[in-house]
């Protein structure tokens, strides 16, 4: 396979991965919301569990967005997006941010399913909003060298 083809494939794969991760979070949240709305939370009298889930999710989100995201090298103007995404170091760093942000959302959504607490929804939506902010175009925005 030609290098340009590999670079383009990597860029497409990253965008497909991002879209799949975000869609999964949204579908999970909507599914859990319907379940809680129709049947109530699975463990109605255990708010501590929901608070712990929300707290852990929030901490994971902070690590992803405050500690790890700034460490990701952003694309400079002299690097094409396809080449930027073909770099394994870039992919690993970005994916770590994404996976942790997604994990924060999932933890919070599970806390919501279990307890129905509003704080879990707030953390889940904050994680999803943060995840949406660091989409592929955020990292490949044209920056000066």
- Tell me the major beta sheet: none
Percent in helix: over 70%
Number of domains: 1
Oligomer: single chain
Main structural class: mainly alpha
| Content of β-strand | under 5%
Q: Could you tell me the mean pLDDT? A: 92
Could you list the spans in which at least 5 consecutive residues all have pLDDT below 50?
A: none
In total, how many beta strands?
A: 0
Gyration radius, in Å: 18 Å
Helical stretch count? 6
Distance between the first and last residues' Cα: 29 Å
| H/E series | HHHHHH
Shape: elongated
Structural commentary:
This protein has one domain. Helices cover 79% and strands 0% of the residues. The chain has helices at residues 3-39, 47-68, 81-86, 88-115, 118-133, 136-140. Helix 4 runs antiparallel to helix 5. The model has no long low-confidence stretch (mean pLDDT 92).
SSE topology sketch:
Elements: H1 3-39, H2 47-68, H3 81-86, H4 88-115, H5 118-133, H6 136-140
Which tags fit this structure?
mainly alpha; 0% strand; 79% helix; 145 residues
Can I get a quick summary?
The chain is mostly helical and 145 residues long. Helices cover 79% and strands 0% of the residues. It has one domain.
């Amino acid at each position: 396979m030609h290098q340009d083809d590999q670079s383009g494939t990597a860029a497409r794969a990253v965008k497909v991965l991002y879209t799949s991760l975000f869609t999964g979070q949204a579908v999970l949240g909507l599914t859990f919301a319907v379940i809680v709305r129709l049947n109530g939370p699975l463990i109605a009298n255990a708010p501590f569990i929901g608070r712990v889930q929300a707290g852990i999710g929030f901490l994971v989100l902070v690590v992803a967005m405050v500690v790890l995201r700034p460490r990701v090298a952003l694309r400079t103007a002299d690097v094409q997006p396809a080449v930027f995404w073909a770099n394994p170091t870039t992919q690993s760093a970005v994916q770590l941010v994404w996976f942790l942000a997604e994990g924060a959302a999932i933890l919070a959504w599970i806390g919501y399913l279990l307890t129905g607490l509003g704080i879990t929804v707030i953390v889940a939506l904050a994680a999803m909003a943060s995840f949406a902010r660091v989409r592929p175009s955020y990292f490949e925005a044209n920056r000066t060298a």
